[in-house]
Each structure stands twice: as structure tokens, then as C-alpha cells.
Hints:
The chain is an all-alpha fold. It has eleven helices and no strands.
Amino acid sequence: xxxxxPGERLRRARGIFFEGLCVASAVVVLVxxxxxxxxxxxxxxxxxxxxxFTQLPKPVxxxxxxxxxxxxxxxxxxxxxxxxxxxxGILAGIYLAEIGRGKLASAIRFIADVLGGVPSIxxxxxxxxxxVVTMKRFSALAGGVALAIVMLPTVTRTTEELLKLVPxxxxxxxxxxxxxxxxxxxxxxxxxxxxxxxxxxxxAVARIAGETAPVLLTALGSQYWSLAIDRPIASLxxxxxxxxxxxxxxxxxxxxxxxxxxxxIVFFLNLLARVVTSxxxxxx
Length: 284
């Protein structure tokens, strides 16, 4: 049996040490997440019922209270924000990766990076001044615009970086066959990068689902059912904040249940992103 080479044991020891360090770091990241999840479930699970999803908020002391309007309002705000932010962000990413050169492209990248670091409450104040003051009312549309701006940097930079990872020979082969450049970008390059872009998009959508400050300053909130985009609308983050800061135990309990539902929505969106990406990759 051959003796270990000089320094082999030291290299193995270093490898084991750093592998253990990586595992420990992963545990440190996961433990707070699991603790938060377990705590929210323990606090909010008792309030889950059909009434929570089908009834309106009620005064303290009345039974059958719920946040059905806030659940519907959150979904509507996500749809409005996504309809504005996703096409804009994806097209901007395509421009930066496939077309953009020079100062304009650099300026767009710089603005996207800066916007990604701007606090969401600042975006809410901006949309309040731009949309709410102009319309002279809070509205779901203003909330959707604020959420679209929040998600724009993530979608834009994710699309750009993933398009840059597409092998250049795919572009060259498509162009060599006489396919116009715009069709190559949309139907060859974008399609190849779509699984990764889809994941980034769903993560951006999951982020805006939990935003409170920009929605509070733009959509305000409501105690009633509403699907009108030109009127104030309820949302889970705002309703959770209001109930959690109230002095009434009943409303505080509803806040915990709302937080659990919001976590479930975000978890579902992340899971959906994983499933869609996995199936897209397998289909290729």
C-alpha cells in the first residue's frame, strides 16, 4: 500500500475543514428562516378558516372576521405591477444585452443599479407625487406602478445577465440562416435563457408581494371589496401592519394569520418558479 504523498493529509484536513465551514454557514442561513416560519405558523395557524378568505375585517368583538378583500387586493396589485414591470424590464434587458452600446446603455445600467438600492418607501413617495397627486386619489393603479418600479431593476439586470450567458454560436447560426436580428433576439436567444429569466421574474414578483411602504402611500387600503383600479384597495401587507400595531388581541391574531398567508403566497411563487424552470430545462 502506497504511503500518502507529502502534504496529502494536510490537504485533506483543509478540505474537510472548509467543507464543514460551508455546511455550518448554510445552517446559519437556514436556521433563522425556519425559526421565523415555525413562529409565524404557531401564532397564525389557529386563525385560518374559510371566513378569513371570504369575509371582510370586522370590529373587535364580532366573530367571522377575515381579510378576504386584502388577499384579493394583494393579487390584483401583483397583476398590475407585473403587467407594467415585467414587459418593461425584460425588453430593457434585451436592449442592454443585444443592442445597447455606448453611453445610453451605460446610463440605463447605472440607473437600474441605483434604483435597485433605493428604499421602497422612497419609490412610494415618488409615485405618490407623480400619480396620486395627479389623479387626486389613492388607487390600485398607483400601487401597481410603485410595485412595477420596485421590480424593474431585478427583472432588467437578471434578463441582461442571463442573455449574455447564451452561447454566441446560437446567435450566429440564426443570423447565418437569414433570420432578422429582432427575431433572433426574441425567439432564439430569449427562448434559450427563458428558464433562468422565469426564475428571476418569479423572485421579483415574490418580493413585491410583501411590500408595505409603497402600497401604503399609493393604494392606501380599504375595508371593502374592490376590483376597481382607480380606487383605494386593501392589501395583506398594509392590513397586517395595521392589525399588528393595534391594541386589540383579536386584530393582532388576525395579523399573524395574514402574515402566514402572505408567507404561503411568497412560498408558492418561489416553488412555481422552481417547477417551471425545471420543466423548461427537461423539455430541452
